[in-house]
Amino acid sequence: MNLMGWFGKAKSKRKKKSKGPAAAGPSWPAGTRIGIYGHANCGKSVFLTVLNEESKVSRDIQLSVTDNRTSNELLKNYRAIWGLGTAQGAGTMVDLRGERAFPEPTQPLVPYVLNAILDRKEKETVVTLDYPGSAVDISSTHQERETVRDFMASSDGLLFFYDPKVLGAELVSQAHVSSFVTMLEQLAPLSKRVPVPVALVITKADTLDGFTGDAQSVLIRETHEHIFSEDFETFLDFVLSDNQIQANTAWAATVRTVLLRLKDFLHVVLGRTLDFQIFFVSSTGNQPMKIGEEVGRSLYQPPDRMAPVGIRAPWYWLLKAVVRNRSIARWRRATKWVAAASLIFALVYSLPFAYHFGWLLPRATNVEASVKETFGGNMFNLPADQRAKVRSAYRRYAGSFPVEALFPSYQKTAEQIELRYRQASLDEALAQLDQVIERFIGIVIDTSIWPKPVPGDTLLAEGASTVAFTKVSDDIAMLRELAPDTSQLARRADRMRWYYDRFRQTLFSPGDTAIWQQMKDQVAQENQLRTDDLSRSEKNLGEAILAQQVKKSRRVIAQQTSVDIQPIFDEINSITDPEYRLTTAVTRLREARGRLAADPNNPAIGKIDRYIQDAKYFDRSRDYEFKVGSIPAGHHLHLMIAGRGRDGTWRRGQQIRPGFTYTFKWKAGDEIHLALDPDTGEETWGERSEMTAVLRDKYALFDLTRAVSFSPTHSVTITLENDPTERLPRIQ
C-alpha cells in the first residue's frame, strides 16, 4: 500500500467512528457521543435526571440543556421522581406535591443533548441515548437492537451500567455480563486495544452491604490506575488488599462478590486499556420503598429524601478521558504527518546519494579495479593506454555536476587518484624525486631559512620556512606511496626520508653534533656501497650535508671552549636575595645549559637541572607554621592569603596572639594581608581594620620574617617555624 493510501484509509476509519451509524440509520445530533449501556431497570433514566440536577451548580462539571426534547424528557422524569405537579386556576399556576414515582420504563429511543463545562473552562456538547433496556438483552430480539449497538460502537466513551440487584440471580447476571462482553468485542475485536474510555458503573450502590458514601464511589485511586494493565487475578488481589477496602469487612466482601460476578467482562477489558475505571453510585442515596410488583419486576417509590452518591464521578471522569484522548489523537495524527513528511524528505534527500554511490562512483572505481586485476593489481605494471583509461574514468567522475555540487571531498580525492596515475611512470616519478632533493639541498645549505622550533615543544613555528620544509616531507611520502617496495624509486625515497628525519632532529638540538656525525657516516657509506644507485641530486645532497657538518662541529667546539660555567655557579651561591636566587639565577642557568647541550656528559648539566628543580619548591601551595614574636599591647593580629590581583577571605573566629602556633597556605605570587585590631571595640576579623599591611612581592613569605609596620608606633614581628631561606636552591 502506498503512503497516501495508508493515510487515506486511516482518515476514513476516523471519519466512520466520528460519524456513527451509516447514512441509512438515524441522524444523531452533533457532539461528543457518550454511550450508557445497561439493561432494563438498571437506572439509566434516573441517573441522567439526577445527574442533570446535581451538575447545575457543581465546580467540576456543570450541565445545561438547550434541546427541547431533552428538556421535556428530563422535566417529566424530575416531576415524577420528586412528586411535583402543576395546578392551574383562574389566572394562576401553582406547584402541587404528588406521589413520588420512578419514571416508567423508556419505550422509544430518546437522544439527550447536554452542554457540559468541565472544571469551568472546557466546554463540550454531549449526546447520549436513553432506550428500552430490552434492546441490549441477548435473550430477546428488539427492533432497536442494531440502532442502539451502532450508537454504542460509534461512541467516544462508554458507561456499562450494572444493577447489583441481579447478583443473587446467577443466570440473569451472566446474561448481562455476556451482553457487556459482546458489546466490548464489537468495539475492539480480537483482543485489540480498547479505543475509547470505558467505565463500569455499579448503580443502586446504597443497596450493597458496607457501602457508606462518596469515599467508596471510585474503586481504584488515580495513583493506582496502572493496575488496569494486569490480568484479572492480579487485579483482584490488588483491590482486595487495599487498606481502605480491608478496613470495612462488609464492603470488602461486597467488592469481591461484584468483581467475581463481573469477571468475564473484566477479563476482556483488563490489560487492553488504562482508560478504565469502576464506580459505585446511587441516584437516591437511600433505599427506595417497595410498593408492589409487576410481571418481571418489583415496583419502588423514591425515598422521601434524595441524597445522590457519586453521580457526577463517572460522567466527569469519562468526559475528561474523552477530551484527553482527543488531544492525544490530534498529536498522533500530527506525528503521522510529520513522519510522512520526514520520510518524503529523506527519500528526496537520498536521491542524489543513491545516484552518486549507486552509479557515478562505481562507474569510475569499477574501471580501475578491472584494469588493475588484468595487470596484477599494480599501477606501475599498467601500459600507458590502460593508465589513460583509468585517468579518463576518474576525470569524467570528478567533472560531473552532482560531484562538483554535492560531493566536493570526493571530487578532490578523484583528482588526486587521477594525478597519481598520471605520475605512475617510474621515470617521471624519479625525475620528480630529484626535484624534491634539490629543494631539500637548498634548505640544508642556507641556515637563514631553517625552520625555528617552538620553545618547549616538538612542533616547528609557523612561517614560510616551515611550509617549504613540510612540503618536502609531503612530496617524499606521496612518491613513496606510488612505488613498489623493491623499486628504485622506493629505495631513493626511503634514503631521502632518513636524511630528512635526521635533519629535523638537528633543528631541535642545535648543539648536538652527534646527529650530524650520523648523517656524515651515512653519506660515506652510501658513496662507498651504492655509487651506481645514487642520482646526481643524491650525491649533491651528501656533499651539502658534509659541508654543513664541518661548520656545525667547528661552531660547537668554539662555544664549548668559551664557556666557563664555574664563575656563574659561585656568583649565584654568594647572593642571598630570594628574588635573585629563584628567578634571575634560574634564567641565567637555563641559558648556560643551552650552550652545554652539545656535551650531554658534562657534569655541570646535572647541577643546573637539580638547581632549577629545587627552585620550583615555592611554586606549589604549602603549609607554613608561624608564631607572633612581638605585638603592641592590647592588640591582636589577623592574617589573610590572597592570590595576586584577587580578593581573599579573612578567617573569622581566629585572633592571632603571641605564644600560639598558627598555620597558613602560601605559594609564590600570593599576597600576604595583615590587620592589627585592638582588643576592645567591635571585632571585624580584619575586614574593616584601621591598621593594615600588605606584602605584595612575589616572594612575600621572606618579607614576613622581618618586622611588619602598620604605623610609626605600631609593628609586629613574626617567626616561621621552618626558615624558608634554608629551602633556597644551591649549586652543589
Describe this structure in words.
It is built from 22 helices and 18 strands. It has helices at residues 3-19, 44-54, 68-82, 145-153, 170-187, 232-240, 243-246, 249-261, 263-269, 312-374, 384-398, 401-406, 408-422, 426-445, 464-482, 488-508, 513-529, 536-562, 566-574, 578-596, 603-615, 700-703, and strands at 32-37, 61-65, 84-88, 93-97, 110-118, 122-130, 157-162, 198-202, 276-280, 289-294, 297-301, 622-630, 635-642, 662-666, 671-678, 691-695, 708-711, 714-720. Helix content is 48%, strand content 15%. The radius of gyration is 50 Å and the shape is flat. Helix 10 (312-374) runs antiparallel to helix 11 (384-398), helix 14 (426-445) runs parallel beside helix 18 and helix 16 (488-508) packs antiparallel against helix 17. Mean pLDDT is 84; it is low at 1-23. With 732 residues, it is an alpha+beta fold.
Keyphrases for this structure?
22 helices, single chain, seven-stranded mixed β-sheet, flat, Rossmann fold, 5 domains, 732 residues, alpha+beta, four-stranded antiparallel β-sheet, 48% helix, disordered N terminus
Multimeric organization: single chain
**Are there runs of 5+ residues with pLDDT below 50, and where?**
1-23
User: What's the number of domains?
Assistant: 5
Shape: flat
Question: In what order do the strands lie side by side in the largest sheet?
Answer: 2-5-6-1-7-8-9
Give the overall average pLDDT. 84
Strand content: 15-25%
Question: Which CATH-level-2 architecture of the largest domain?
Answer: 3-Layer(aba) Sandwich
